[in-house]
Design a protein that fits this description.
Pfam families: VanZ. This is VanZ-like domain-containing protein. Keywords: Membrane, Transmembrane, Transmembrane helix. InterPro entries: VanZ-like. The chain is mainly α. The chain has one domain. It contains four helices and no strands. Helix 1 packs antiparallel against helix 2, helix 1 packs parallel to helix 3 and helix 3 crosses helix 4.
Length: 133
């Protein structure tokens, strides 16, 4: 149970947060559409970067003979699948729209996290699994 709470609960809670934010009606920060676009799309990149990192941490906690490259690929597809399912979910929310464009923007955050993790995987694995907080 402790392993679940330590490793799997954070990405689950983050996905619940993303889902609940997607369930809200559309809001805006500015009267200017371009500013709203930049702000909200930046949030997409950040939230999916974080989700990838949380998923990577959880998946890499599985004690099996999964290679790090496989963990990266599994994390990539799992996070991308969630991005697609969230956009699909938004098609059913009044004032919201699910778009391929948003999946592409989510994929930017996922790709940045993938590349960061790929080049820092040894340090990250050590940090994620040897650090006690």
């Amino acid at each position: 149970m402790k392993k679940f709470i330590d490793y799997w609960l954070p990405p689950i809670l983050w996905m619940v947060l993303i889902y609940s934010l997607s369930n809200r009606q559309k809001i805006s920060f500015s009267d200017t559409q371009a500013i709203n676009f930049l702000i909200f799309k930046s949030f997409h990149i950040i939230e999916y970067f974080i989700l990838f990192m949380l998923n990577f941490r959880a998946i890499s906690s599985i004690k099996s003979k999964i290679w790090i490259k496989q963990i990266l690929i599994i994390t990539l597809f799992f996070t991308l699948f969630f991005a697609i399912s969230d956009e699909l979910h938004q098609t059913f929310v009044p004032t919201r729209e699910g778009t391929i464009r948003d999946v592409v923007i989510d994929s930017i955050g996922i790709t940045i996290a993938f590349m960061y993790t790929k080049y820092n995987r040894v340090k990250l694995i050590k940090f994620f699994h040897e650090t006690r907080y």
